[in-house]
TrEMBL record, chain A:
The keyword Nucleotide-binding applies. This is Sn-glycerol-3-phosphate ABC transporter ATP-binding protein UgpC. It comes from Streptantibioticus silvisoli. Keywords: ATP-binding, Nucleotide-binding, Transport. InterPro entries: AAA+_ATPase, ABC_transporter-like_ATP-bd, ABC_transporter-like_CS, ABC_transpr_MalK-like, ABC_transpr_MalK/UgpC-like, Mo/tungstate-bd_C_term_dom, OB_MalK-like, P-loop_NTPase. GO terms for cellular component: ATP-binding cassette (ABC) transporter complex, substrate-binding subunit-containing. Pfam families: ABC_tran (PF00005), OB_MalK (PF17912). Residues 4-236 form the ABC transporter domain. The keyword Zinc-finger does not apply. One of its GO terms (biological process) is carbohydrate transport. One of its GO terms (molecular function) is ATP binding.
UniProtKB/TrEMBL annotation, chain B:
The keyword Nucleotidyltransferase does not apply. This is Carbohydrate ABC transporter permease. Belongs to the binding-protein-dependent transport system permease family. The keyword Transferase does not apply. Residues 101-293 form the ABC transmembrane type-1 domain. It holds the Pfam family BPD_transp_1. It is a multi-pass membrane protein.
Length: 372, 308
């Protein structure tokens, strides 16, 4: 068990001018499940490989517990890693695969066997121990890869997109299994994924990266409720948050025929920096269909924004309406969640109002969050 | 074959009777396609058989001559009048034949082992490590492959014979194999390139250093390529005529089988039946090895482009 610290850790690939990971600072608590998430090329895998010792650290430091491991080879770091393609040695049986690291470390045979059998029991692999990886299904291979990591009882688990080679159903199942296994073992875990649903459902905390820069580290709930900037707002949540650029008015910002209240100081800061507009973010589930009682800024028109329905996705319990609307003189795409029993038809016009307290306001020029 | 065709015909027949005996368009197309396939099969196999016969005929001739009596060997009768199996034992009574066997096995086995041991690490480094001069090293390997051995034979001979005085032995042929072989390095490297980097990463995380990664993880995965290289090298050494001729032609005690065979071909008289029997004996190990190892052989050559 140990904490993990990225201290200004930087990686510049030979021949590259821009760092792949730029001054990364994260403190991971003992026993925490931290998920690194971001689009491809954001540096999340590189960060993980730096922690594993498979990638040089050009600047800054990485610590596991109190030990500075920045320049230690992987074998001296007391870590175990699960790879995206599992990297199970094809010429070894499942048991040999799982016990390989212990064998290299010189652990005696009886203990290796005992630990492998224990891990196999946890992962439901006992009957496959004498098989070769070739004779296993994708899900079983994935579990062997997990088993290979847990028999070592390392200080830190590193997982590099371990679920992306599974089919959708198995992925959801395995997701829960990994999360509960981690809670049970209590081992500090760093998990890389590009899937924000995985990130939100598995992590104690989530770190969002983009272009090698850390955007935000927070609990999934806070990440969802208070994204720190436009990128996080657009990345976390599915379907993505509606982000619309609107002009600044007195006491707030106009969103169609409604006023979204915004912290006065934040607005002042925005207009002081020369911005005439801010970007308002509303999640699809935070729109309400206006029923005529909502407060409108114009007497002739109903409150909110008129959204013309283009496509409706019915998911059973609810539905997502993909439509277009005119906001502040330009055409924007809007996604609205509606109840599963009251789905509009294509071509209908919906008047939607953002629910009070559920709007996010960002500076258009810097992308930073302005609202509380 | 005929069974398959009959069984395959059945669905076509059912569909015809289902439509009141009128063959449907798709039924006709199906039958035409099947007939075309059958004709193709016949064409491909006839050509294959013809080629096989063309290649086999010399062997048949070789074998038949090897069991003829000395007086019959040069006549126009192709079938042996008496089957003289004793030709095969007579060959072993030829002075030196046993020694040549031993020399050949020594040359082929040592050469093969040394080539594999010396080429694998080089190929691994060229495939998986990034270091300055890597491209240049690769270019050197490729240019060595393009260089015909005859071009450097004079300086090589002078070096081995005049500097090291190793002429009259097979060592000038064996020792260089401890320093890598360009073709083997190239073939192994191409194969190692197809091994995903994650396996090496996994081995490193599991606690292996570079040498252990190579021995415990990479080598077992590269077995098809290594077998292919070993086979190529074994056959090369076994069949080598040029090398022994250059370095050991003066010393019959250091001849190999392929070079020794020429001694059957005398200046005044040639015992063709014995020559043929000896030739068959020399070829036998190669044929046996190839028969058992052809899968590995073909795999190694094709695998370099195929992912597992």
């Amino acid at each position: 068990m140990a904490t993990v610290t990225f201290d200004q850790a930087t990686r510049i690939y030979p021949g590259g001018d821009r760092p792949a990971v730029d001054k990364l600072n994260i403190d991971i608590a003992d026993g925490e499940f931290l998920v690194l998430v971001g689009p491809s090329g954001c540096g999340k895998s590189t960060s993980l490989r730096m922690l594993a010792g498979l990638e040089d650290v050009n600047d800054g430091a990485i610590r596991i517990g109190d030990r500075d491991v920045t320049h230690l080879p992987p074998k001296d770091r007391d870590i175990a890693m699960v790879f995206q393609n599992y990297a199970l040695y094809p010429h070894m049986t499942v048991a040999d695969n799982m016990g390989f690291a212990l064998k290299i470390a010189g652990v005696n045979k009886a203990e290796i066997r005992q630990r492998v059998e224990e891990a196999a029991k946890i992962l439901d692999l006992t009957e496959y121990l004498s098989r070769k990886p070739k004779a296993l299904s994708g899900g079983q291979r994935q579990r062997v890869a997990m088993g290979r990591a847990i028999v070592r009882e390392p200080q830190v688990f590193l997982m590099d997109e371990p679920l992306s080679n599974l089919d959708a159903k198995l992925r959801v199942q395995t997701r829960t299994q990994i999360a509960s296994l981690q809670r049970r073992l209590g081992t500090t875990t760093v998990y890389v994924t590009h899937d924000q649903v995985e990130a939100m459902t598995m992590g104690d905390r989530v770190a969002v990266l983009k272009d090698g820069l850390l955007q935000q580290v927070d609990s999934p709930r806070n990440m969802y409720d208070r994204p720190a900037n436009l990128f996080v707002a657009g990345f976390i949540g599915s379907p993505a948050m509606n982000l619309v650029e609107v002009p600044i008015t007195d006491g707030g910002v106009t969103f169609g025929n409604s006023v979204v209240p915004v912290n006065r100081e934040a607005l002042k800061a925005a207009s002081d920096s020369g911005d005439k507009t801010v970007t308002v973010g509303v999640r699809p589930e935070h729109f309400e269909i206006a029923d005529g009682e909502a407060k409108s800024v114009s007497k002739d028109a109903p409150a909110g924004v008129a959204v013309t329905v283009n496509v409706v996705e019915e998911l059973g319990a609810d539905g997502y309406v993909y439509g277009s609307a005119e906001v502040a003189g330009s055409q924007v795409d809007i996604v609205v969640r509606v109840g599963g029993r009251s789905v509009p038809l294509k071509g209908d016009v919906l008047h939607v109002v953002p629910r009070g307290g559920e709007t996010h306001v960002f500076s258009t020029s810097t992308g930073e969050r302005l609202s509380d | 074959m005929s069974n398959t065709v009959t069984a395959g015909d059945r669905p076509g027949r059912t569909s015809r009777s289902g439509r009141g005996g009128v063959p449907s368009a798709s039924g006709i197309a199906l039958r035409q396609a099947r007939r075309r396939k059958k004709l193709e099969w016949i064409a491909v196999h006839s050509v294959g058989l013809a080629i096989a016969v063309a290649f086999l005929l010399p062997f048949v001739f070789l074998f038949l001559t090897s069991v003829m009596s000395d007086s019959q060997a040069l006549t126009s009768t192709l079938w042996p009048q008496h089957w003289v199996w004793s030709n095969y034992t007579a060959v072993f009574r030829v002075h030196g034949f046993g020694t040549w066997w031993r020399n050949t096995i020594e040359y082929a086995v040592l050469g093969t082992v040394l080539t594999v041991v010396s080429s694998v690490p080089v190929a691994y480094a060229l495939a998986k490590f990034r270091f300055p001069g890597r491209r240049l090293a690769m270019m050197l390997v490729i240019s060595m492959m393009m260089l015909p051995p005859q071009v450097i034979i004079i300086p090589m001979y002078l070096f081995w014979a005049k500097q090291l005085h190793l002429d009259g032995t097979l060592w000038p042929l064996i020792i260089p194999m401890a320093f890598g072989d360009a073709f083997s390095i190239f073939l192994l490297r191409q194969f190692l390139l197809t091994i995903p980097k994650e396996y090496l990463d996994a081995a490193r995380v599991d606690g292996c250093g570079e040498v252990r990664t190579l021995l415990r993880v990479v080598l077992p995965m590269a077995r098809p390529a290594i077998s292919a290289v070993a086979l190529f090298q074994f056959f090369y050494c076994w069949n080598d005529y040029f090398g022994p001729q250059i370095y050991s032609s003066d010393n019959p005690a250091a001849w190999t089988l392929s070079y020794g065979l020429q001694s059957f071909h005398g200046a005044h008289q040639t015992n063709w039946n014995l020559t043929m029997a000896a030739t068959l004996l020399v070829m036998a190990p190669v044929i046996v090895v190839f028969f058992f190892a052809q899968k590995a052989f073909i795999e190694g050559v094709t695998l370099t482009g195929v992912k597992g």
